[in-house]
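Project standup — Tuesday

K.O.: blocked on the structure for the chain from last sprint. Re-posting the sequence here as requested.
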Amino acid sequence: MAGGIGTRHTEFFGPDFARGPFSGDPLQIATALAQLRMPLLRSDSELESHAEFISTLAEKLAPDQASMVRTDVGNETANAIDTSIRVDASRHYLLHCWLTDTTGGGATTVSPDTVTWNTGVVLSEEVTKRRFLIVTSATGVANVTVQYTGIKVWRWAVALVGRVFYSSQLFFD
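H.V.: unblocked you, prediction finished:
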C-alpha cells in the first residue's frame, strides 16, 4: 500500500544529477554536496556564509578550476598605485595580467611610466609596461606598483585558467 503505515518517504530538494545536464564542474558538485547543510533560515548573512562554504568545497574538489582571483587596489601616493593580486589557494599560479581601460577590454594603448612587480616572478612581458605573464609566490600572491604622471584610469585584468577577473580602478589624477 503506497503511503501507508510503515512506509518511508524521503525528499531531496537539491540537484538531481540523473535528470539534468551534469558537467562535473567542481562548483556544481560542491553545490550538490552543500545542499546537505543548507541553512533553514534565509537571512542574507546565512546565505553569504553558505556561498562561502560552497566556494570552499569547490576549491577542495578542483583548486585550479575553482580558484578566484582577488585584487586590492591602493590609493595613489606620489604618482604610484600598489595592487595586490591574490589567488584563493596557496600555491604557485601562472597569471596573465594586463592593464585595461575598460572591463572586458584588451590591453590599454597608453603605457604607464613604470610597472614594478614587487612579489611574483615576471615570466614574460608581452607588451612593454602593459601585459605580463606572472608566476605568483607560493602563497598565491603577486604585488605590483604602477607609476604614472598624468590623468588616467586603468584596471588590472587577470586571467587564470581561462577566467578573467577585473580589479577596481587605478585612478591617477
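K.O.: great, moving the ticket to review. The helical segments are 26-34, 44-61, 63-66. The chain has a mean pLDDT of 83.
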